[in-house]
Amino acid sequence: MIRQLRTSERFRAGVLPEATDIDQAIERSSDIAVVVDEAGVVSGISVNTECPTLGCLDHWVGRPFADFLTDECVDKFETRARALRESPDAQVRPIELNHIDNAKWEFPIRYTMHRIRGGETVLLLGRDLQPFAEVQQRLVREQMAREREQQRMRGIETYFRVVLEASETPLVLVDPEGGKIRDLNTAAAQLLGSTVDGLSDSGIAQAFEGRRRTEFLEALKGAASTSELKGIEAVARRNGRVVTLLPEFFRAAGDLVLLCRVTAIDDQDVRGPEFTQSLASLFASTTDAIVLTDAKGVIREANEAFLVMTDAAQLRDVKDQSLGEFLMRGTVDLTLILENAIKTGRIRSYMAQIKSVVGTRLPVDISAAHLRQRGGDLGIGLIIRDVSQEDTMAAAEPGSMVSQDAVKNVMDLVGTASLKELVSATSDVVEKMCIETAIQMTGNNRVAAAEMLGLSRQSLYVKLRKHGLLHSGGGD
Fold it and tell me: Which of 49, 207, 363, 403 is least enclosed by beta carbons within 10 angstroms?
């Protein structure tokens, strides 16, 4: 019984005149071997078993070889095959062909062409180029990705340069390790009396007088490491201008960078000496008292109106004293004013009484503001206005309708009972009004309200519960 041979086996048996081991050598020397007859039809094919990417191509046998070539490769193959048949001794260069199979699988093969069987049949010995093509495609993709990344980085750098130059704030970027200026904008270069190119890559300490590199760099890093906004004063070497550097750290691509904002001290009041003189004149001549204190409430400056209000003869009588000494509720009022001014930045209206050095009292309305600048804290500024000529009931009660109704109810009782009975009946109303006013003035700070009313905290809570005010506001 004769065993039927596979197509690839028929090809191997028919490549050479005799079946020898040469057919195996041909098969193993190439990834694919194809025999094409004079009509361009595939008469045999063999695929190397060690080249699994090609798979089984036995269905090519008996079909035109051109059916498995891309359009641009058909003419290329026919031209080379015709040249080989017409000139048997001609050296035909290797040819690269792109194959298609089932209209969706495309793979490149590099062939060498050989004549067999009288010169009309062509043997194609091919090397699979798919691994090389994949490597090339990967390289192309990597190159394209690299180009896109470079384009993106150029865009980011362009944005950075435009924003840096457009900023009116002088900015300097410093390497915290070497102390060199990595970048700066034109505003900073002009402020320091140089150009961007002249300062770039130079030491930051070299731009200022009397500054050693290590000492100056440590001062910058120390100021940048603190939570407070703390500046460092220096004198520009090229133009002698006194400036303040406000450094802060940020991280870029894993590296720490110092961002220094530069401010000219002599330019901080950009409106000039006329504006300063106008403020000084207003401070001296206004009818409202103006007081400047430090963060603890110690008076540093006061105008003439405050001296008149406190019956003080001259500034040294009030300077370096606590403002609480001139408030009727002393530290209670002062603490509330300072805490709220520092916390919120300003107080619009706070009703209190000023006590003069001779003991007289004067109802006042106090507004305060926390004065700050980039270089540090300037303290608290207070404007104190005399309200003794105004309706004290309206001034002391900004919108509490409960108290007005209570007063009206009390007035309606006049004539219906004796004065003693009226006083006894209205004592609770007055007590409730006082507690409400204290709670309102202290912003529902019950510890401060108890101290303001001269009560213990426990006694205040008893009275709050008695008048139904315990849950009228927030917490302490």
Answer: 49
